[in-house]
């Protein structure tokens, strides 16, 4: 059986998500590439032309001053400078600044217009540039575009008693226009190329990534499909080592729980059928006895003596009592078996309970010619358990001991305390139980033969075992043929420190 693929909807979502991430990443890469390429070019251009302003001063201002004695700008000199510069690089713009950073003259500015306000350039970047000798990447103000910053070269001059700065913009308006036009085309080519390559590789990468990342999920889906088709024992191998270890382990635990529930339902169904069959069998005998004696009384009532009538009525009464007890045991055991009974645990004196039971069974034991003994310390400790359930368990064990102990025998109820537990045991001197049958006596409706008796423990010992199990303990049996039997179990001691 091949593992079923994930739903098309999930695959589409995963593919679209991966494609979206890759496309966004490619666009981000293209933009970052353009940005850092432009940054690198600007820094390289500035570093290469770092000494341009100083070279211009050394060459052009050797014999002439940019400002005459009257404070006028030597426009002819600047026209010649700009002509030479543009012959080499049309992107260059040369500005003459005073010591406060105000533009005194530039060929690219219209100085004849009265509407043109004086241009001011910040001196901080210029001073930093001069201080570092152009080794650091610095941007300066663009006189033609207030608020914009561009790469530049600058140097300070002092000629004829006049001081100022030569400020050269290395990327002028014409350069920027051409650059932006080329950059758009380059960006489109770069973006389109990266996008196409991304889509080409994304298909392969997405399929591989989806198959790899969803491997564990597909295992879980496959296991669910197997479980749905009836393979209840199929589990995810090495669930704790998968990428989705938490989900895989949870699935295995869930499958185990469901399987246990199914098996428990089957067991309860078998128990229900067995219970109906056993009830039918167990109720038939006392009912048949009661019905037989009633019919005899009806047919022979006038011919029977008073003594015979009394015997028949006593037999019917005993049958009714036995029937009532059996029905009560059936209901009690069915509740315990279905976990409908929850122990209401509380601290109580086990010694008081033992004394009450001893007094209740003493008269019954005397009628059967059996000696009943109670052995315990003067002050047995408190135990923590459900008192009514514990009383019921001891009663069933006492009934069982008195039933199988012959006249002249001894039944002993013993309470032995320790620091953490209290052991309760019931010993009889009956015929005992063979070793091979000791593991079966706690099963419901298990009938055993003890000596000449054909009656077994019935539901009594099964009820005792369920009660003890509800207290997280176990019942033990020690017996040898013709040497009697001892049933014992332990209950936890209630700490005295917790008493209020």
Question: Which key terms come to mind for this protein?
Answer:
single chain, 500 residues, alpha+beta, Beta-Lactamase, Helix Hairpins, 4 domains, five-stranded antiparallel β-sheet, five-stranded mixed β-sheet, 12 helices, 54% helix, rod-shaped, disordered N terminus
CATH third-level topology of the largest domain? Heat Shock Protein 90
By CATH, the superfamily of the largest domain comes out as: Histidine kinase-like ATPase, C-terminal domain
What's the number of domains? 4
Average pLDDT level: 78
Indicate the topology.
Blueprint (H helix, E strand, L loop, with lengths): L7 H41 L3 H9 L14 H14 L4 E5 L5 E3 L17 H10 L6 E3 L7 E11 L2 E8 L3 H41 L1 H14 L16 H56 L5 H32 L8 E4 H18 L3 E6 L5 E4 L1 H18 L5 E8 L3 E8 L6 H4 L21 H11 L5 E4 L5 E8 L8
Parallel strand pairs: 7-9
Antiparallel strand pairs: 1-2, 1-5, 3-4, 4-5, 6-8, 9-10, 10-12, 11-12
Helix pairs in contact: 1-5, 6-7, 7-8, 8-12, 9-10, 10-12
Overview of the molecule:
The chain is α+β, with helices and mostly antiparallel strands. The protein has four domains: 70 residues; 120 residues, Beta-Lactamase; 92 residues, Signal transduction histidine kinase, dimerisation/phosphotransfer (DHp) domain (Helix Hairpins); 153 residues, Heat Shock Protein 90 (2-Layer Sandwich). The chain is 54% helix and 14% strand. It has twelve helices and twelve strands. The strands form three sheets. Strands 2-1-5-4-3 form a five-stranded antiparallel sheet. Strands 7-9-10-12-11 form a five-stranded mixed sheet. It has a two-stranded antiparallel sheet with strand order 6-8. α6 packs parallel to α7. It is rod-shaped. It starts with 7 loop residues before the first helix and ends in an 8-residue tail after the last strand. 23% of the residues are buried.
